[in-house]
Amino acid sequence: MMNYTRVMTLEEVKKLTVEELDFLYDKDANSIGMLLAHMVAVEKAYQIESFENRELTEEEMDELNPALDLGEKAREQIHSNNIDFYIKELDDTRRYTIETFKALPDEWLFQQTPFWFGEQANNYFKWFHVFEDELNHRGQIRIIKKMMAKQLHI
């Protein structure tokens, strides 16, 4: 499911120019490039949380931001990258995820740990959330592309 989600995300963005990746439909918007960087940051955060069974350190949060939180700092810092940059980041991050999945026993998927609001969640759910997040942002990407087409007359 994760691989299918990723293939479809890459299909949606693979031909975008730097201008299109950086397009902001208003002053508070996320660009497509920002959303792709966010997908990478979310996956890296879940690698730490689920593979290492711990919360992110302040240093790790600093490394993953502003892509993890998005917002004004992300608009200032995440731009001017071509699609190959984002695809490499997505591919490298996913490669590590898949390699680690292969090394873990099946029982790992069922391990429950505190998650949101102190509730228990297993690793199946945590990784479902990773590609659920990507699916939601792919929907945003499609909307941004439509808005961009109208404004840039593409």
What is the element layout, followed by pairings?
Elements: H1 2-13, H2 18-22, H3 32-51, H4 58-64, H5 72-77, H6 83-103, E1 112-114, E2 120-122, H7 123-152
Antiparallel strand pairs: 1-2
Summarize the structure in words.
The chain has about 150 residues and is mainly alpha-helical. It is built from 7 helices and 2 strands; from the N terminus they run H-H-H-H-H-H-E-E-H. It has a two-stranded antiparallel ribbon. Helix 1 (about 1-15) runs parallel beside helix 7 (about 125-150) and helix 3 runs antiparallel to helix 7.
Assess the beta-strand content as a share of residues.
Answer: under 5%
Radius of gyration: 16 Å
Average pLDDT taken over every residue: 96
Report the principal-axis shape: globular
Discrete helix count: 7
Strand numbers in spatial order across the main sheet? 1-2
Key phrases:
154 residues, single chain, 2 strands, 7 helices, mainly alpha, two-stranded antiparallel ribbon
